[in-house]
Design brief:
98 residues; mainly alpha; 4 helices
């Protein structure tokens, strides 16, 4: 949805399709914003929802086995980048003015 809206607004105002560098910049910025909001959300959960014991348990879990968490985070960011790039590219092709 975000890919469609951003490409549609660009094509509507500029009367042209996005270039490859614009697609890359839009992808990086949009993913950065999404992950920044996700980090704020998890920080809010950490501060307002978890009590001291839950925080200690989570910290101990991460300290014992950090690689699964790191691997999952890298995988989520990669999948998000790839899907956003593909979505922006597809909508750019579909909405290109003739």
């Amino acid at each position: 949805t975000g890919s469609y809206i951003s490409v549609y607004k660009f094509v509507k105002h500029q009367r042209r399709a996005l270039s490859s560098s614009e697609i890359n910049r839009l992808t990086i910025v949009s993913i950065s914003v999404v992950w920044l909001l996700t980090a704020v959300y998890f920080l809010g959960l950490w501060v307002f929802l978890f009590d001291r014991i839950s925080r200690e348990v989570l910290i101990d879990m991460v300290a014992v086995q950090p690689l699964p968490l790191l691997g999952a985070t890298v995988l989520m960011v990669t999948i998000t980048l790839v899907s956003a790039r593909i979505g922006i590219w597809i909508f750019n092709r579909l909405l290109t003015p003739k």
